[in-house]
Amino acid sequence: FTGELGSDLILTSKDPLSAFRKFAAMFDLKEAAGGLVSDPGENWLFIYRRDRWDLPKGVIEEGEQAGPAAIREVEEECGISRLRIVRPLQPTFHVYPLNENRWILKKTHWFFMKTLVCCRAEPQVSEGITRAEWKDPDDLEEVFDCTYGNIKELLEACLNDRKSSRL
């Protein structure tokens, strides 16, 4: 689990599922969905928001499934169209304060996606996104230097999958 400030919490237990349920019960749960998008040139899409590199994502609306929500969020936040989901990725969790007395535990469902068209990404400024850029997956040092721990873990898994031809 990684908090907004980059602090990590590690829980150990003989019954990890039970421990996680007890931990999660202390928070309001929100579910989000997003994607790691590859263009026809195999570059990956990133957004820059709150002084960090991130991946496009957003809250799943009532009655919406995670896959369609992820596609919708990428379209809204970056102006990318003609997306298709290749496969689901490992979900991530992070926490952030709602107010002085309430915290949110957000589970994000991630998907590896491809777009059939090469296009310029347009950041959704109204969502605090100042940049949306395609980056070569072999040159992500700038991203790794300035992103969240859970995004680093997701990217590392995807880079390993890419090397073994699973992406």
Low-confidence stretches: none
First-residue to last-residue Cα separation: 25 Å
Q: Can you count the beta strands?
A: 9
Work out the helix count: 4
Look at the structure and give the mean pLDDT. 91
Could you characterize the architecture of this molecule?
- Strand 7 (92-97) and strand 8 form a beta hairpin.
- Helices cover 25% and strands 34% of the residues.
- The longest helix has 15 residues, at 149-163.
- It has 167 residues and is of the alpha+beta class.
Descriptive terms for the model:
alpha+beta, six-stranded mixed sheet, 9 strands, 167 residues, 25% helix, three-stranded antiparallel sheet
What's the short story on this structure?
The protein is α+β, with helices and mostly antiparallel strands and 167 residues long. It is built from four helices and nine strands, in the order βαββββαββββαα.
